[in-house]
Amino acid sequence: MECISASGGLGDLPDTARGSGLSLRLARLARSAVSDEWAVQYLLDGGGRWKTTADGETVAGVCMAAQGDGRFEIVVHVAVVVVPIGRLVARLRRSVLQAAAREGLADEIAAVVFSFDHFVTPETRKRTR
User: What is the pLDDT of residues 87-115, one digit of tens each?
Assistant: First the structure.
C-alpha cells in the first residue's frame, strides 16, 4: 500500500481540495485517537515512507488509501507494548471511529487497519524510539 499525498504519483490521492484536506484531517484524527491508548508507545514513519502529506503538512505513521467509493482506508503504523492483540485492535479501531463520528467524518472511512511494526517490551521500552 502506498501512502498518499496531494503531490501526485503512484498511489497518491487525487489533487483536489476536498481530497487532500480530508485525508489530512482524517490522518490527524487517527493519530490523535490512537495516541491516547496506553498500549501505543509511538507511531512509526517507516523511514519517511509511512505518512500522509498535504498542504505542506505531514502526519507521520498514518497512511491514507482512497477507495473507489470516495471513502478512505486508514493504516496506522504503531509500536505497542505486547498485549492481547485482538482486544487492542478493537479498542484502537473504536477510538478512531468514535473520533471520526464526533467530527462528522464517520461516513468517509471505509476501513481502519493497524500495522504492528514494532513491539515494545519492558526491556526495550526506554531505549527504542
Answer: 889 999 999 999 999 999 999 999 999 98
Q: Is residue 81 part of a domain?
A: yes
With a CB cutoff of 8 Å and minimum separation 6, the contacts of 15 are: 6, 7, 8
In a domain, 8, yes or no: no
Domain containing 75 — which CATH number?
Answer: 3.30.70
- C-alpha span between 47 and 117 (Å, rounded): 12
Angstrom distances, CA of residue 14 to CA of 70, 88, 117: 11, 32, 28
Segment 29-53, tens digit of pLDDT: 999 999 888 888 888 888 888 899 8
Is residue 61 one of the residues assigned to a domain? Answer: yes
